[in-house]
Amino acid sequence: MLRCVLAVCAVAAVYGQTDNLVQLATKIGATDLVKVVTQAGLADTLANKGPFTVFAPSNEAFARVPKRIIEELERNKTLLTDLLLYHVTNGKVLSTQLKNGQLAPSLFEKHDLRFNIYNEGKLITAEGSPVALADQQASNGVIHLLNKVIFPIPEGSVVDFVSRDPFVSTLLKAVVAANLVKTLEGGPFTVFAPTNEAFNRLPPGALDKLLANVTALAEVLTYHVVKGTVYAEGLTNGERVATVEGQDLSVRKMGPERVIINNAMVERADISVTNGVIHVINNVLIPPPKK
Ligand SMILES: *[C@@H]1O[C@H](CO)[C@@H](O)[C@H](O)[C@H]1NC(C)=O
Ligand SMILES: *[C@@H]1O[C@H](CO)[C@@H](O)[C@H](O)[C@H]1NC(C)=O
């Protein structure tokens, strides 16, 4: 007799685990996923091979994807296939086996998926997307239903992202001037990355003054870095998070898409990189003077 938690036993009893992944996905209501899996020609693999662990976006998750992106996916089968394979890992991984910050290679060119566990296990995320329903067991694997579709970005570290993205080129310049490139290749880190506009919003002369004083610059920059990976879903309203600089940041949250760090708004959340996660913000965070 397999040991299992009640909910899983109940599912096993109802479905007898005779449903394959595609049949089970249909039964639990992930019908949009089944539709696109079929379009991509992956239904046969998911029905008959495995075992696989599928992080299955719900219909609500697909409904939240911008129309422009859906149309692009419909036009480009390679893009669609890559996206779907990014939601699948080899083997049967139950939620109880996941650890906070754990990485597992997806079937999309081994791009990693990162799992996080928040709120004493009450919230599990894959690449920042909350698991809405875990541990649905099929004959050839297991399904965890996701609240959001997850999109792979080109592989690379925090520094690679900052080097590539034209909207944060001032940050790159500052990181280089402060000799922090090597530090930021470590991690894993959560980085609040101010845009070029955020740097432009500093008082006149403030940026030049910082660039001329490596100590002060490094203090400001490390005040944007938190150890470990915290995706937006894992941040809670009223929370204080310790930075590498040593002082805390305060978090305000007015809903999943509205996160404020001190006086800065998160403009783009949850950019997953190999050694962490980046949240792009619209103001530079200035550490309070040390006592
Ligand atoms: C389709 O997507 C792939 C993978 O992202 C890309 O390399 C390719 O250029 C795209 N093809 C077209 C016609 O847009
Ligand atoms: C550089 O910054 C540090 C830390 O903020 C400060 O203690 C120091 O006085 C500054 N040096 C100059 C020359 O302004």
Jot down its keywords.
13 helices, 7-stranded mixed sheet, 14 strands, 2 domains, alpha+beta, about 290 residues, FAS1 domain, binds 2-acetamido-2-deoxy-beta-D-glucopyranose
Please characterize this protein's 3D structure.
The structure is a single chain. The protein is of the alpha+beta class. It folds into two domains: 7-146, Roll (FAS1 domain); 158-281, FAS1 domain (Roll), CATH 2.30.180.10. Helix content is 33%, strand content 26%. It contains 13 helices and 14 strands. Strands 2-1-7-6-5-4-3 form a seven-stranded mixed β-sheet. Strands 9-8-14-13-12-11-10 form a seven-stranded mixed β-sheet. A hairpin with a 5-residue loop joins strand 10 (240-242) and strand 11 (248-253). Helix 6 (67-75) packs across helix 7. The chain is elongated, with a radius of gyration of 21 Å. Bound molecules: 2-acetamido-2-deoxy-beta-D-glucopyranose (2 copies). One 2-acetamido-2-deoxy-beta-D-glucopyranose is lined by residues 76, 78-79, 82. Keywords: Signal. Residues 1-16 form the signal peptide. It comes from Littorina saxatilis. Pfam families: Fasciclin (PF02469). One of its GO terms (molecular function) is cell adhesion molecule binding.
